[in-house]
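Allow me, if you will, to draw on your knowledge of protein folds for a short while. I have a record of one protein: its chain in single-letter code and its fold written as discrete structure tokens. The full record is reproduced below for your convenience:
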Amino acid sequence: MKELPEALRHYGADDASRLVLQFIYNAVKHSLFMAQPEVAFRDTWIDFRSEAAVSSWTFRGVANLEYFDVDTSDTGFPDVVGPEGRIIRLNTGGIIAGRSAKTLEPLGFDERVIEKLRENWSGPGASSFVIVTESQQTKTPQNLMLSGDGQTEILANLTVTAMRLVQSGHVGSGPMFVVRPALFDVGLSGLHQSGWPRGPVFGRRFLLTPALLMPINRTFGQLQMLERRQAVPAAGNLSLAIRYFSASFERRSATDAVVDLVTSLEAVLGADVEISFRLATRVAQLLGSNDQERVDLFRATKLWYDLRSTVVHGGEVKAKHQPLLADPEPLREVVRRLLRGFLQLTSINQSPYSKHFFAQDLDAFLLSEQNRGRLRSAMGLEGSSERDAG
């Protein structure tokens, strides 16, 4: 084995003795070992050489999706359900699939993983679908026994966040189980798991339709650029705002969700002085497509901010706040539209709408109807309320 240059480069000389023992173990496990041991050794050697020639490890993670459904009508994905169901491939590096052994085993997930998924399949948000993500890492002697690189979890989280930003629904994912499928087993033991069950969160189900694939892929790309610091956020702390928006889906309490959502608004549009008034004005000017919408958004945002301040400072929630706590979804939709708009701005090369612009010039700029229209158009907000309502 030491004389194989690819094995030496990828596995190192120090682990040669252990790999020899693993080679013997794999050969003994071969189905033909008892009847034709020479065939078992030959096949194991072929597998070893073939795997040693591959320059990267592949990691695959799978997790149950929660509050998630797929449109299985004739205009949707009619062939995605059942043991023979096909997978839905996203441009996010992930796939959506039905939770069946026939679908998951070819991807490298054995019965241990499938059983873990079954154990985790419970609660009001349980669905019949899983998300699978994949990442690669160049082989080195240092990562010979690495069971997970953390990237599969990041890809799954970004995909779920993209779904949450594109359409309403409490879509989420359970614990992720990660495998490193390979032609030759180098002796990895145990099962790599990250994350914990989501808990009894109640909400609306997310419905995946063919029309949503493109916006999900686009939003994922924008989020990934932001994650890698390859995009310059246009206003405030966009990454923080997105984290608080996503955290609102994990809250069991509507009060906590409102605190998260208003904090998200403040992270991108907050001001140092007259915070409530200026935040409400900015939200109304950016999202409102006519005078009445702007008035309604101004009043609602001031009320949401008042509720957040009351909760954070330990005050008593008033009667006027109760309808907001009964249904935080209108607030979440406002935050969703704004965050989509700010993500859109990060995709514009040499955008004039910089962080300095939003910090210093925004309020005066929005006084002009023509300027406001240009900014709304750049953020993809023109006509967005009508589209969202439809």
